[in-house]
């Protein structure tokens, strides 16, 4: 697929993503947690979280909705960027930070993060690809290994808001 095709996919979905984010934020998490993504090859009952990170260069606060899974008690998100040849900005931003903000439905927390390795990574990847099958196509379309990020809640924080 490459960067150009992945960029086209992202552009086509930008309106949906922005609407999804707005719904999640303005409802305080009562809407937007579970979404039907079957139209794009996913499942009807797909769980989404919000992540909040600070730009490593700009120091701007970013909030992004992402599909997540729960694997062995840890929250898992996938840095797929639709199969682009470069990592998503949020992933590069968390590499520069020890913690990340996460909101799941109406609960938010600061979390530590790590990347699974070896056999654990293989198992987590299979689990996430089961939750959202397009991840398999994304991986086939790029030479980079799509990162998996495992999150462990550290402390509760205020839910995210559209104003913040």
From TrEMBL:
<dbReference type="GO" id="GO:0005886">
    <property type="term" value="C:plasma membrane"/>
</dbReference>
<comment type="similarity">
    <text>Belongs to the F420H(2)-dependent quinone reductase family.</text>
</comment>
<dbReference type="Pfam" id="PF04075">
    <property type="entry name" value="F420H2_quin_red"/>
</dbReference>
<dbReference type="InterPro" id="IPR012349">
    <property type="entry name" value="Split_barrel_FMN-bd"/>
</dbReference>
<dbReference type="GO" id="GO:0016491">
    <property type="term" value="F:oxidoreductase activity"/>
</dbReference>
<dbReference type="InterPro" id="IPR004378">
    <property type="entry name" value="F420H2_quin_Rdtase"/>
</dbReference>
<keyword id="KW-0560">Oxidoreductase</keyword>
<dbReference type="GO" id="GO:0070967">
    <property type="term" value="F:coenzyme F420 binding"/>
</dbReference>
<protein>
    <submittedName>
        <fullName>Nitroreductase</fullName>
    </submittedName>
</protein>
């Amino acid at each position: 697929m490459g960067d150009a095709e992945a960029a086209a996919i992202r552009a086509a979905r930008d309106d949906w993503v922005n609407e999804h984010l707005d719904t999640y934020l303005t409802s305080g998490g009562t809407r937007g947690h579970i979404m039907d993504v079957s139209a794009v090859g996913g499942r009807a009952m797909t769980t989404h979280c919000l992540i909040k990170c600070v730009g490593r260069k700009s120091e701007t606060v970013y909030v992004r909705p992402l599909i997540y899974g729960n694997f062995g008690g840890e929250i898992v998100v996938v840095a797929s960027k639709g199969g682009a040849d470069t990592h998503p900005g949020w992933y590069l931003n968390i590499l520069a930070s020890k913690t990340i903000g996460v909101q799941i439905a109406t609960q938010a927390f600061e979390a530590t993060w790590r990347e699974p390795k070896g056999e654990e990574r293989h198992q987590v990847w299979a689990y996430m690809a089961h939750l959202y099958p397009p991840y398999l196509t994304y991986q086939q379309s790029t030479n980079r290994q799509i990162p998996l990020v495992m999150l462990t809640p550290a402390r509760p924080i205020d839910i995210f808001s559209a104003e913040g």
